[in-house]
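Slide 14.
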Amino acid sequence: MSLSEFNIIKQYFSSISTKENSPNIHLGVGDDAAIVSTPENKKLVVCTDTLNEGIHFPLNTSAYDIAYKALAVNLSDLAAMGATPKWFALNLSMPGINEDWLTGFSTGLKQLAGEYQLDLIGGDTTRGPLSVSITLAGHIEGVTALMRSSAKVGDKVYLSGCTGEAAYGLACLSSAATINDSDKYFVSRLNQPTARVSLGLSLLGIANACIDISDGLVADIAHIAEASQCGIELDSNIIPLPAIADKEQARQHALSGGDDYELVFTVAPARQAALKQLISQTDLPITCIGEVVAAPGVLLLDNGRSVGLSRTGYEHFNNK
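Slide 15: predicted structure.
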């Protein structure tokens, strides 16, 4: 017997909830809408992302990895705001019912949701081209959220981890029939990105502005510059590069490759000591890669000289 929409939800997704242990969930999966409340003195923070087959993940990506990434990219958005994730809704479109695929998908979703103690509180399941949309909600103390619009002239610009690794992973998948052991790490960075939720929370009270790197380092830093009505100078010789043999390819990936979901943030001179202490308490590499300046735009420097880029990042409706 073919599974109905409601059977799918009950069999594969209703268990991704611990609402009996979550007093702020008053009504979860199973009704027309969910009812939740935020703790006293906290603000609700909401984000949403859509992943489409062939655009956000290659056609042969496993169901586990699709689910994992769909939730991870939303977690990254909340990380960039310094918010604590709590609940999510899932909208899943798929061309047909494949129970093996649904098992893998729900397993990937449960795995990451369990790591962050997230509750699935609703959504929708439809027939159509493979597409996954997740809306994630969480909370933050008062109005202390990290935002793109708060960078100040004189701030130093910092980057967590290394960008370009996911882009190289995609290049490996696109060019090789099989992935060798040395490249599996880069493919995992593409398929199972790490959302820097802990870092985002730690940056509250330290960083002025913050954004996660989804479309490319230079492209996303430009959003901070525009929103903050300032400029940013980047030192191309300091930006961490993926550990691959072709250094020019590594440089291009690091500057314009997307899907790494690292955080880039700005810190005022008065808060450098606090940041230094934070860095000493984490194993995650954090690198100063530039400075906020008054002149608008993003300027990439090589030994003090401006250098250009043929591509700054991914744009959905202007990509060749």
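Speaker note: Residues 5-141 form a domain with the 60s Ribosomal Protein L30; Chain: A; fold (CATH 3.30.1330.10).
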